[in-house]
Amino acid sequence: MSDGSDTPYDSLSAARQDGFTTCPHCAPGPRSPLRTTSDPSSARTPPQHPLIVGTNQFTYVLPLRSSTSLAGTELTPYLLWMAARAETIVVDGSPAAVFAEHAAKWGHAVRHVPPADDLRTPMGKVGGVLTGIRLATHERIVIADDDVRYDTKPLNAVVNALVTADVVRPQNYFAELPWHAHWDTGRTLLNRCMGGDWPGTMGVRRSVMARTGGYNGHVMFENLELVRTVVAAGGCERVLLDAFVARQPSTTSHFWSQRIRQAYDEFARPHRLILQLALLPLLILLGWKWGAAAIAAFVALVMIVAEGGRRRANGTEVFPHWATLCAPLWVAERAICAWLALGSRIVFGGVRYRGVVLREAATPMRKLRRRFTQNRSARHKTSDTRGSALGYGNLL
């Protein structure tokens, strides 16, 4: 067991009723469609059950699928570091030969398993996450992609937040900054001004997932689907704008492959999609009617908003100032890709992902709430407490 000492990666709850806690950051009574807490200035007294690094009081779940072995990469020492601090489960959907290499390298330190057959989903990551949650022996679970690299401070912040919240969303930043990481950081800064960015890692309580039976694995925006499912079932989300988790940048080819898919995510948030579809005609109109000066004013406005996101909640600690300059590039990209995503919806019926076409970006909150209410009423009438609140089955 680790003593919590520093390593290259360094720089747990009260009893709950029916699987949920009353979050001090979420007022009692009926919840709004997506109630969150994201302003650090509104935070109250820290939890009375803080995590002590090395006590193994939480589970770390890493869903993975790779065509090439990652055993010889920097992921291996990271997993060993994490395994000394948490129950670590790697759910590996890689081809057999790659799976075997991973098992040989990591099997002595982590629980290395394939996705459960009954939990496989078109959005493969969801099946991996649900498999890990099923196997987890702790209430508090941290889910992270294979490119995420926690250190002690944000890890403590996420797991401690799960004392009072049911799902927790920290913030990613790129540990290294090739050109496309600067570009993508522009998006992050803008999102930090609009409720927080969506990272490659989340914290969730196992009891919540037991109650819902999981979440929909037939959608593209799987992190939003997870949060919406938890909130629809009565849970509380907390956004940690000042918990910064490092992420390894993707390859340039992978970056380009994600442009339309990420734009397609906004079908889950129609108001944002409409705004982004309006960007291109707006920019054309500005240039045609008022010329370069109008375009320059628009670019300046975008950079001002992005800089606000960079400065919010100590973001200057991890986000370089020149990333603000990249925000207009991302806006220009999204102005084009939003229309390409709409075209994909019309032509293909959805967006292509790993050989399949996914139509839904995420389930609307009203649909999840209606499903939750109907299933709860049905179980109450029959006095049957088995099954899930949202009808996804029995995860655990």
Counting structural domains, the number is 2
Structural class: alpha/beta
User: Helices and strands, in N-to-C order?
Assistant: EEHEHEHEEHEHEHHEHHHHHEEH
CATH class of the largest domain: Alpha Beta
Basic shape:
globular
Helix content: 40-55%
User: Could you report the average pLDDT, rounded to the nearest whole number?
Assistant: 86
**CA-to-CA gap between the ends?**
28 Å
As residue ranges, the low-confidence spans are: 1-22, 27-35, 39-50
- Name the beta content range: 5-15%
- What does the radius of gyration come to? 21 Å
Could you name the CATH homologous superfamily of the largest domain? Spore Coat Polysaccharide Biosynthesis Protein SpsA, Chain A
CATH architecture of the largest domain: Alpha-Beta Complex
How many H/I helical runs? 13
CATH topology of the largest domain: Spore Coat Polysaccharide Biosynthesis Protein SpsA, Chain A
E-strand count: 11
Main sheet record? 9 strands, mixed
What does this structure look like?
With 396 residues, the protein is α/β, with parallel strands linked by helices. It has two domains: 56-252, Spore Coat Polysaccharide Biosynthesis Protein SpsA, Chain A (Alpha-Beta Complex), CATH 3.90.550.10; 254-358, no CATH class. The protein has 13 helices and eleven strands. Strands 1, 2, 3, 4, 5, 6, 7, 8 and 9 form a nine-stranded mixed beta sheet that branches. Strand 10 and strand 11 (356-358) form a beta hairpin. The longest helix has 26 residues, at 323-348.
